[in-house]
Design brief:
This protein is of the alpha+beta class and 219 residues long. 32% of the residues lie in helices and 16% in strands. The longest helix has 13 residues. It is globular, with a radius of gyration of 16 Å.
């Protein structure tokens, strides 16, 4: 399992049980967050930790830039998780069908157990929703094949995504970071996968003036 990515960045505040009366009921949530992880940052951190097993899946072979971390059901305050325990088994053929967007089997299984079970959808429908949500987002051209490390302002990354996706607004996107690197771009979507504002997600955005984006590698 690609535990490193699951730990690197996750949903947004304390578990929802303390914040929402719905208490992890499948399908009872307010909106989604589509989380796009900057794969080169993940790989750089995995290398620093010596996590060779985790690196081998998305940090070698073909190059990756933004990859799907997950599609997360959210409450207006907090989020549900692990809504069915034990979770329904995820068929292997569904897992393998997602490797072009989520380049590690462990990540896919983890996202189904932790977040997919809260969607109220079947496994097939949930991963179809991930594919549809990802297809609705245009990645800014400057991030598709970043050949050299880039120092960026998080606000500039937001602006680039908004320019590439005209219906996207500043209240529907958040850029996250660690101490030095850009980690993720998180985009808020309605249950119908339309852009929508999300105040709590926006409050969790990176507050640094600048962060580093390691270059795309592999291939």
């Amino acid at each position: 399992m690609i535990a490193c990515l699951a730990l690197l960045v996750g949903p947004l505040v304390a578990p929802a049980g303390a914040q929402d009366r719905r208490q992890n009921a499948p399908g009872a949530f307010d909106f989604y967050v589509l989380s796009l992880s900057w794969s080169p940052s993940f790989c750089a951190e995995a290398e620093e930790r010596g996590g060779r097993g985790s690196r081998s899946q998305q940090c070698s072979g073909r190059p990756y830039s933004f990859v799907v971390h997950g599609l997360w059901p959210q409450y207006e305050a907090g989020y549900p998780e692990y809504c069915e325990q034990p979770s329904p088994r995820l068929p292997r053929n569904i897992m393998t069908s997602m490797l072009d967007l989520m380049p590690a089997p462990g990540l896919i299984y983890n996202e189904w157990d932790k977040h997919g079970t809260c969607s109220g959808l079947s496994a097939k429908a949930y991963f179809e929703a991930i594919r549809k949500a990802r297809a609705a987002i245009k990645i800014p051209e400057e991030f598709l094949d970043l050949a050299q490390a880039k120092t960026v302002a998080p606000a500039a990354v937001e602006e680039a995504f908004i320019k590439a996706n005209p219906k996207l607004t500043t209240s529907a996107i958040a850029v996250t970071c660690n101490r030095t690197r850009l980690s993720e771009v998180r985009i808020c979507l309605s249950k119908d996968l339309e852009f929508r504002s999300c105040d709590e997600v926006d409050r969790q955005a990176c507050r640094r003036d600048e962060v580093n984006m390691p270059p795309v590698r592999g291939g």
